[in-house]
Amino acid sequence: MKKLGILISGRGSNFEAIARNVQAGKIPAEIAVVISNKEEAAGLAIARQMGLKALAIPSKGKEREAFERELVAALHEHQVDLVCLAGFMRVLTPYFIREFRGRILNIHPALLPSFPGVEAQKQALDYGVKWTGCTVHFVDEGVDTGPIVCQAAVPVLDEDTPETLAARILKEEHRIYSEAVGLVVEDRIRIEGRRVLRKE
Ligand code: GRF
Question: Distance, CA 87 to ligand 1 centroid (Å)?
């Protein structure tokens, strides 16, 4: 059974959605560890309530590489096969990417390559698009640039605020992140250049 390491910084609703699907037997994997770079992250409390191994590795006041060395050590110690970034608000350095090359997923609340970076829902509203959505992608050295595993589209309504739009997108995030983790741990995809294709 593949081991997941989930990295969070806050609320942790994407982590929780994955964890519930793992518990329900819908994702054939085990959550080996949940790590937050913030002690106060609500997601850590949820992880502990669910009986999962949950650690805080504070990033504050540490050199980027020193922080990542601790993170990498903890992930290796728990024999993590696949790292899932779930609202983890730190950009990873090439050192981290090298350690887990091709084995890191992220969820982004926009249809990449549109609106990478922070406040993606507000960027979509400000731009005036009629559809936006979310993307699960492999992580490479860039910001939100790696090969795309799953996407889902949601409409932008006239009365939307960044908050109402974010809530509509979040529902789809919870669905497609589990779908993408399932595809990876079941070894049902292959990567050709930028394209993630289904096997057979
Ligand atoms: C989500 O919108 C995710 O796409 C973005 O940060 C948010 C995290 O939410 N990267 P949660 O912590 O999973 O509830």
Answer: 4
